[in-house]
């Protein structure tokens, strides 16, 4: 079949991080000559079109178009992580009829393949009904995805729900992770009543649908997640590990710098100017991603820890990041004045450029999967303060498996922050740097011709090109 008639519909979760990874994938498919329709919610599309970089980049691809759908929520809805369950259930009501219409063979440009987030499990059923193969793209870490697949066995074996309150107890019945993962390292909902929790219910439905999907895409590479990828493949052989996506894209674009930004917030480039004036490896970059909401007290613990460490820092504090009734402007004014000479605060940074900057020596992160991969690409060790889903197991692996940083886990204490910052940036710097730089090299090799992420991407593209209606 002529691949010019291949038409992929991409439908990401309505989050900055997933839109980011899915746009990277979309660009890779466009570069391979495929036609791509990218389905975004109206709310996120409005924020994305403010980013001229995205518009101008995708204009180059005649086969690419954005399509939008309402998420069914009123404009004033805050859409923070705390309401994530509402967002996905409301979007489901809108997306089900929309997908049925979109996947009809009678439309002008019939869709030959759908790529959607695994949490949109209903899309797999609709695709099968309409005769359109569906590939799920899970943007979380492969280790967490493997834990998801093990959940039914954990329940069957009586491991879940946990008995007793020992969060440090090692979790059994988790092949490839025995002796490594404790209860506190599992996705947060394993510690809740997962039978009633909305997000865990969606995960259970997702893993039930996986065998009905045509394929699975994961954003990682063999040298990083080999043991977990091979476990996932034993369950679902058609798993394409094509990450790290930003590097795969950079290679195929033959771009000198990893600058392609898919930000829905305006990036503050004064952060780069500030970094230019600092010495090599002297700055710790602090960012808790696009979703996390924190209290004033928690910020103050990090603040004091950072200030007491005397290590220079660049900190991203999003305007929608504060819990409770705190005035962002007033609070920021106080913090900015208090850290002159040591720290620099912005509301959103060009993160990939920041991590690539020679002045940055480490990253204090919430262990979101994109942030973790971006840090590994640039060979920057991490301190992890994880909260939700995959972040908890990722931070454990950073500390205990890859040995490229420190895991703070649930602790939020200025003395621990100070000690870990000093360890990462000074005392144990060489040790962590050596291991993360090794992974960075392997990541770069994996996306070069002959590397596994490179060939996995080719296999995925050929698979899609072979799909017909
Ligand atoms: C969420 C979950 O938190 C995470 O656990 C899961 O793996 C993916 O979904 P998020 O919290 O947004 O993601 O974190 P992360 O995956 O790290 O993505 C954040 C993205 O925003 C990164 O690509 C990062 O480069 C970008 N970013 C962040 C910026 O461009 N500028 C910033 O100032 C902060």
Give the C-alpha Rg: 22 Å
Instruction: State the helicity in percent bands.
Output: 40-55%
Secondary-structure-based class equals alpha/beta
Mean pLDDT: 94
* Ions, cofactors and other bound molecules: uridine-5'-diphosphate-xylopyranose
Order of neighbouring strands in the sheet with most strands: 3-2-1-4-5-6-7
EC number: 2.4.1.-
Protein name: Glycosyltransferase
Family: Belongs to the UDP-glycosyltransferase family.
Enzyme class: transferase
Verbal overview:
The strands form two sheets. A seven-stranded parallel beta sheet has the order 3-2-1-4-5-6-7, with helices on both faces. A six-stranded parallel beta sheet has the order 10-9-8-11-12-13, sandwiched between helices. The chain starts with 6 loop residues before the first strand and ends with a helix. With 469 residues, it is α/β, with parallel strands linked by helices. The chain is globular, with a radius of gyration of 22 Å. It is 45% helix and 13% strand. The structure holds uridine-5'-diphosphate-xylopyranose. Uridine-5'-diphosphate-xylopyranose is lined by residues 15-17, 20, 139-140, 263, 287, 289-292, 316, 348-349, 351-352, 368-371, 374, 388-391.
What's the helix and strand layout?
Elements: E1 7-11, H1 16-31, E2 35-41, H2 42-48, H3 52-59, E3 64-69, H4 84-102, E4 113-117, H5 121-130, E5 134-138, H6 142-156, H7 198-209, E6 215-218, H8 222-235, E7 239-241, H9 245-253, H10 270-276, E8 283-287, H11 296-309, E9 312-316, H12 328-338, E10 343-346, H13 351-356, E11 360-365, H14 369-377, E12 382-384, H15 391-400, E13 405-407, H16 414-427, H17 429-446, H18 452-465
Parallel strand pairs: 1-2, 1-4, 2-3, 4-5, 5-6, 6-7, 8-9, 8-11, 9-10, 11-12, 12-13
Helix pairs in contact: 1-9, 4-5, 5-7, 6-8, 11-16
């Amino acid at each position: 079949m002529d691949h010019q008639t291949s038409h992929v519909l991409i439908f990401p979760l309505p989050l900055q991080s997933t839109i980011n990874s899915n746009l990277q994938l979309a660009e890779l498919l466009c570069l391979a000559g495929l036609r791509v329709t990218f389905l975004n919610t109206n709310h996120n599309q409005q924020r994305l079109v403010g980013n001229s970089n995205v518009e101008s980049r995708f204009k180059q691809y005649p086969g690419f178009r954005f399509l939008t759908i309402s998420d069914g929520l009123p404009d004033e809805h805050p859409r923070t992580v705390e309401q994530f369950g509402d967002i996905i259930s409301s979007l489901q009501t809108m997306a089900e009829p929309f997908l049925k219409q979109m996947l009809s063979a009678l439309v002008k440009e019939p869709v030959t393949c759908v790529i959607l987030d695994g949490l949109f499990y209903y899309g797999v059923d609709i695709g099968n009904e309409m005769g359109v193969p569906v590939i799920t793209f899970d943007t979380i870490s492969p280790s967490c995805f493997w834990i998801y697949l093990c959940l039914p066995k954990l329940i069957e074996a009586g491991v879940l729900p946990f008995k007793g309150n020992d969060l440090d107890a090692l979790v059994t019945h988790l092949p490839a992770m025995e002796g490594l993962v404790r209860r506190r390292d599992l996705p947060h909902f394993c510690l809740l009543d997962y039978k009633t929790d909305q997000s865990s219910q969606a995960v259970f439905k997702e893993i039930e649908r996986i065998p009905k999907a045509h394929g699975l895409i994961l954003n990682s590479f063999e040298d990083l997640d080999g043991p977990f990828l091979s476990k996932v493949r034993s369950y679902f052989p058609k798993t394409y590990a094509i990450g790290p996506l930003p590097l795969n894209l950079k290679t195929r674009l033959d771009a000198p710098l990893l600058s392609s930004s898919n930000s829905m917030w305006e990036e503050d480039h004064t952060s780069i100017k500030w970094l230019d004036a600092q010495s090599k490896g002297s700055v710790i970059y602090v960012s808790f991603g696009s979703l996390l909401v924190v209290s004033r007290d928690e910020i103050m613990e990090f603040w004091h820890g950072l200030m007491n460490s005397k290590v220079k820092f660049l900190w991203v504090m999003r305007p929608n990041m504060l819990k409770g009734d705190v005035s962002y402007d007033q609070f920021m004014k106080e913090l900015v004045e208090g850290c002159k000479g040591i720290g620099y605060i912005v509301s959103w940074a060009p993160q990939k450029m920041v991590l690539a900057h020679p002045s940055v020596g480490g990253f204090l992160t919430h262990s979101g999967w994109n942030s973790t991969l971006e840090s590994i690409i640039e060979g920057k060790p991490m301190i992890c303060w994880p909260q939700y889903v995959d972040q908890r197991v990722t931070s454990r692996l950073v500390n205990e498996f890859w040995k490229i940083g420190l895991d703070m886990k649930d602790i939020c204490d200025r003395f621990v922050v100070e000690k870990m910052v000093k360890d990462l940036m000074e005392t144990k710097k060489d040790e962590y740097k050596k291991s993360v730089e090794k992974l960075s090299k392997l990541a770069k090799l994996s996306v070069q011709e002959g590397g596994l992420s490179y060939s996995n991407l080719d296999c995925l593209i050929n698979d899609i090109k072979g799909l017909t209606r």
